[in-house]
Write a structure and sequence with these properties.
This protein has nine helices and four strands; from the N terminus they run βαβαααααααββα. α1 links the parallel β1 and β2. Strands 2-1-3-4 form a four-stranded mixed sheet. α4 packs across α8. The longest helix is centred in the middle third of the chain and has 18 residues. 55% of the residues lie in helices and 10% in strands. It is α+β, with helices and mostly antiparallel strands. It is globular, with a radius of gyration of 16 Å.
Length: 201
């Protein structure tokens, strides 16, 4: 009997914390033989329900501490990161839809690869994921069909994006990244140790 678990992976494509946790999360899930369900969501719809605030509306001391903490984690994890990237804040709906289109047509592994490319584009490469041409380039760089960009504009993909966002709201996800296992939410890349424990048989 299979004991492998499923992890619902809720995130926003522009989230630095999702970027910092992504490769570790992928490795943890793979080592556990877990199934990942890739769920990009619109935090702009989640925050009004959860009481969260967009970055620009947070208190100055919170904004300042965020920069310190990002630099701290970047150094600790050995991952490059521009704490004030050129293109941030950035509209990420198009990137979310591309990830969904890749997931639909190419599967989870390709979608996770596309996630990694999108996150690195923002936080390492100073590229604008709000620009469809940049997304088209990322698709090709990931070795995927150029058709994914056009397919991401479909009504079916949009409906899936809205459904994932509503699903996140319904189960009380309030931040990105959130990893959900058997209904239990683990919020933040700094909770990946707990994710790893939850996946043990």
């Amino acid at each position: 009997m299979s004991t492998s678990k499923t992890i619902d992976y809720y995130f926003a494509p522009q989230s630095p914390w999702t970027y910092l946790g992504h490769s570790r999360f992928a490795a943890i899930a793979a080592a556990a033989g877990a199934t990942v369900r890739v769920r990009p969501i619109d935090m702009g719809s989640v925050f009004p329900v959860s009481g969260g605030l967009p970055l620009g509306k947070r208190a100055p001391q919170r904004q300042a501490y965020r920069l310190v903490d990002l630099a701290r984690y970047s150094s600790y994890l050995g991952l490059p990161l521009n704490v004030k990237p050129k293109f941030f804040p950035v509209a990420s709906d198009d990137a979310a839809r591309v990830i969904i289109a890749v997931d639909v047509h190419d599967g989870t592994e390709a979608a996770m690869r596309m996630c990694e490319a999108v996150f690195a584009a923002v936080w390492v490469q100073e590229r604008n994921i709000g620009d469809p041409k940049v997304l088209d380039s990322l698709i090709v760089e990931c070795g995927l069909s150029p058709k994914r960009g056009e397919q991401s504009l479909s009504q079916a993909v949009q409906e899936r994006y809205e459904a994932y966002t509503q699903e996140a709201i319904d189960i009380q996800v309030f931040g990105a990244p959130s990893y959900v296992i058997d209904g239990e939410i683990f919020w933040g890349q700094d909770r990946l140790d707990f994710v790893e424990r939850a996946l043990r048989p």
